[in-house]
Design goal:
Length: 456
């Protein structure tokens, strides 16, 4: 009997373990469910990118992708019943919502005597698999990375679009939903899909991998891979990247592997503590005093719009709006600014990031934020407060990054762009004065942190 292949965060046909599990040449229906619970908080750029990936996947399947809008708990069993499938094949999901959804789908399928078969996951090593000698799970990155590398991962699966015998969705009595093509975005986004992912990866390996260990910290240069958006939707699987890196011994390759380990680490941590998506991982931070009310709202708006008067912060926030992506160094700077200079709750910032980032990923985002805020696992100590001017001068030494995204400062040459208030003629017209005094707010942040420590 035929099977149902339910795509979620694995929008590709190469390296697809779910296809292997279904068995070569098996009659199969390819399904994607447009789930408003996931789409609503995604923001237009991510929706636009997702829809592009779905069109690309449909092409790779010769037009045989069935897209249905609705609640997967209702849709998946209904489609499975319609085609008389014995089994539904998926790659396991480890997010809190995805796990609950899959369990609910599985309950209905079981009642119908059908099986939900989980093969693989979006990670090199699925959450829960990396364990210490006594079977415990890791809360600190470095030992996790060591055990992760020792654990190892599978070689890429040898599949393509013709691996299964795809059923024509036109012959199935289920109403298809056209993939929306009316999402308008002002941001300049990467090309969606599997071929685009591979092209991007190859050009990164060719041009920048060797220098990645140093290059990755420079937002003014194109030194990072920009693979996060493709990994988010599984246009490429991380094990394909790791297989390509395996033969390379350069510091750049080592460093890149380590960054990929962070992605697996945060997925593991979120799996250990699903509550950490919304709340402090370290609950002692629950007493940290944070802002609220009209003044907090005003500062939050200035931050979101990139009008704080701190050039590197503003450049980052505007890059986010312009590209649906922000350089990692600047994610840390802008996050630190929100938490430690504006004293706003990290989850305000995290929510804005999730809505604006095309690569918005619950595990990496919430734990990236908590790392900066000090409340996370393995976090940066709270007393380390980024100075936005020094960070700018160090990582954007000529000011090119700022000038790219903040047109009001386009005529300021060199490093002086990081301190527009100190220019001989004063700050250029239209660029805001700093919304806070960094030195004062730094002291305030340390006082608030001290209060957290005392309350422990
Ligand atoms: P590269 O430098 O080329 O890194 C290669 C890959 O390694 C990335 O694609 C990513 O998959 C992984 N990686 C690198 N750094 C990290 C990290 N710190 N944590 C987890 N994985 C990492 N990443 C997301 O994918 N989605 C998010 O929503 C997200 N939110 C973040 C929020 C904050 C506050 C911070 C500090 C970091 C966040 N990151 C997030 C991690 C990191 O900033 C991005 O993965 C990276 O900037 C993506 O660009 P790239 O692909 O060019 O990175």
């Amino acid at each position: 009997s035929p099977v149902l292949v339910w795509f979620r965060r694995d929008l590709r046909v190469t390296d697809q373990p779910t296809f292997l599990a279904a068995g070569q040449n098996t009659r199969a229906l390819a399904l994607f469910v447009l789930d408003q619970r996931l789409l609503a908080p995604a923001g237009a750029p991510r929706q636009w990118f997702l829809y592009g990936c779905l069109r690309d996947l449909d092409e790779s399947l010769d037009g045989r992708l069935l897209v249905v809008e609705g609640d997967p708990v209702e849709v998946v069993p209904r489609v499975a019943r319609e085609i008389g499938a014995d089994s539904v094949h998926i790659a396991a999901d480890f997010g809190p919502y995805g796990q609950a959804r899959d369990r609910a789908v599985e309950r209905v399928l079981t009642e119908q005597d059908r099986e939900l078969v989980r093969t693989g996951s979006p990670y090199a090593v699925a959450p829960g698999r990396v364990r210490s000698a006594d079977g415990g799970r890791y809360r600190v990155f470095t030992p996790f990375r060591r055990a992760w590398a020792e654990h190892g991962w599978r070689a890429p699966a040898d599949t393509d679009g013709g691996y299964l015998d795809w059923i024509d969705p036109g012959t199935v009595k289920v109403e298809a939903t056209p993939v929306p093509d009316d999402v308008t975005v002002t941001a300049e986004l990467p090309e969606p899909g599997e071929a685009a992912a591979r092209k991007r990866w190859e050009s990164f390996v060719h041009d920048h991998l060797l220098d990645y260990a140093d290059g990755r910290d420079r937002p003014d240069q194109p030194g990072t891979s920009r693979m996060s958006v493709y990994l988010k939707y599984g246009c490429v699987h991380v094990r394909t990247l790791l297989a390509d890196l395996a033969a390379k011994r350069s510091a750049g390759a080592q460093s890149f592997r380590s960054e990929l380990a962070w992605r697996d680490f945060y997925a593991d941590v979120l799996d250990q503590r699903p509550d950490s998506a919304r709340r402090n991982y370290d609950r002692s931070y629950d007493v940290l005093k944070t802002g609220s009310g009209p003044e907090a709202d005003r500062l939050f708006t200035a931050w979101k719009e990139g009008r704080t008067g701190f050039p590197v912060v503003d450049a980052g926030m505007r890059q986010l709006l312009a590209e649906g992506w922000m350089h990692n160094r600047v994610r840390m700077i802008t996050a630190s600014f929100l938490v430690k200079d504006l004293h706003l709750p990290w989850w305000w910032g995290a929510k804005h990031f999730m809505r604006s980032l095309v690569d918005g990923d619950l595990a990496s985002n919430q734990h990236g934020w908590q790392w900066v805020a000090g409340s996370g696992t393995d976090a940066a100590p709270f007393f380390r407060v980024f100075n936005p001017v020094l960070q700018g001068e160090r990582f954007d030494p000529n000011g090119d990054y700022v000038r790219t995204y903040v047109p009001e400062l386009a005529d300021v040459t060199g490093q002086a762009v990081h301190k527009p208030w100190a220019l001989p003629d004063g700050p250029p017209a239209g660029y805001p004065a700093p919304v806070v005094d960094h030195k004062r707010e730094r002291a305030e942040a340390l006082d608030r942190y001290e209060a957290v420590r005392e309350a422990r």
